[in-house]
Amino acid sequence: MNILIDERIRNKEEDFLKNELNLNVEKIRLSSFVYPEISGHSDIFYAKINNKIYCSPNAPIKNPSFIIGKEEVKNTYPDDVKYNICQIGNNIIGSKYADKEIIKYINIYVKQGYAKCNLSVTGSNSCLTSDIGIYKELIKHNIDVTYIDDDNIHLLDKNNNISKMKGFIGGASFVFNNYFVVFGDINNLEEENKEKILNHLEKYKLKLKTFEDIDIIDYGGAIIY
To answer: What is the pLDDT of residues 206-219, one digit of tens each?
Structure first.
């Protein structure tokens, strides 16, 4: 299987994806179409809906199996969130700004355009989120959601340095093969948020994979296909 992920991923994280999860790592090169912090993020250029990958016409990586969307990703909001869609079970979460090719699938609308950035799916009816608006909306739909807002999740600039912009739990994690993978050291989170995550993972019997002694980085999550 393949994994689409920001080319700024660090060596120890890439080694785990390759050697432990047996994934073929496809690194998304940084694009000039959006600002540097999100320019290699899979959740900006791609959306996975019902096991099909939709992508922007100007996505850095294209595959013959991908469905090309109608609208290109552009630098300013909301033109950078056309493919920022998240699926939890049969529910598709997104905003009114979604690409015309995929907006028809959305059944839970949220005000937050960066929907996928703020969501980490942990099961068919469960997730973590960094957005209080998304949290409140998903609760209405009986989705088991844990709210995590932490200033210790970072974004990277074009030079791989920590940006002043804040990252989110959805972009800093993903689930595969019963692992909940955090890009960085979970001990860098505030203790309360760390405990929330650990309790959530225990509830859904997910194994934590964390990388000691490195910052938690929001890479835009990962898309596996």
So the answer is: 999 999 999 999 99
| Residue labelled with tokens 């999550």 | 221
The pairing of beta strand 223-224 with beta strand 162-166 = unpaired
Question: For residue 77, which phi and psi values (nearest 5 degrees)?
Answer: -70, 135
Determine the Cα angle at 208 with ends 205 and 209, to 5°: 150
CA distance 115 to 168: 10
**Distances in Å between the alpha carbon of 195 and those of 122, 200, 201?**
16, 8, 10
Hey, is 25 helix, strand or coil? Answer: strand
Instruction: Calculate the alpha carbon distances from 35 to 75, 99, 132, 173 in Å.
Output: 6, 19, 24, 21
Identify which of 170, 182, 139 has the alpha carbon closest to the alpha carbon of residue 16. 182
pTM of the model: 0.96
Residue (of 48, 61, 56, 46) closest to 7 by Cα position: 61
Q: What is the pLDDT of residue 222?
A: 98
Task: Using alpha carbons, select from 85, 114, 119, 81 the residue that is nearest to residue 102.
Answer: 85
CA gap 121, 143 in Å, rounded: 11
